[in-house]
Design a protein that fits this description.
alpha/beta; Nucleotidyltransferase, domain 5; globular; six-stranded mixed beta sheet
Length: 166
């Protein structure tokens, strides 16, 4: 298992939940809820600044697939958000991980812990980001491989064919 802080992100239409893990990559904790700024990108700049401050080894973003696994408008929006974040974070990788039902699970967990329903909106995005990141950490620990789909960052070059012309 790789060590290093990761930043977890739950991108919504109105808010962006943010979580981070410890340097050992064991436990995700809530960090902040940002206002989504689809036009100006302030939320993306805030995530980039946090990742730099924490010296994060990657950013894990929840990809909202449909229950049947397909990608609809929400997933396309998150992919576009990730593409907009890409130039702000240098070589720090972004990984998209399946986040089906994390917001539902976050609401369920908040209710179970006694948080009043009226207060859910304030913290549910952070709770969803924690679930996304914790799932990614647990998945990596189990499989030995980084979770999800990597977008952007340093890419390995294809090896040239031996004996071929350029």
């Amino acid at each position: 298992m790789r060590t290093g802080v990761r930043v977890g992100v739950d991108v919504g239409d109105a808010r962006v939940g943010v979580a981070a893990c410890d340097p050992e990559g064991v436990l995700a904790t809530p960090v902040a809820t940002l206002t989504r700024d689809a036009e100006g990108g302030q939320d993306q700049r805030d995530i980039a600044a946090l990742a730099a401050e924490l010296n994060a080894i990657e950013i894990v973003v929840g990809l909202p697939r449909s229950l049947d696994g397909t990608e609809g408008p929400a997933a396309r929006s998150v992919r576009a958000w990730g593409d907009g974040l890409r130039p702000l974070i240098g070589d720090t990788p972004i990984r998209l991980v399946d986040e089906r039902l994390t917001t539902v699970d976050a609401h369920r967990g908040l209710r179970a812990s006694g948080v009043a329903t009226i207060d859910h909106r304030r913290v549910v995005d952070q709770a969803a980001a924690v679930l996304i990141l914790q799932h990614a950490l647990d998945s990596e620990r189990t499989s030995g491989r980084p979770p999800g789909e990597r977008i952007g960052g340093a890419r390995r070059r294809k090896p040239r064919a031996k004996g071929g012309s350029r």
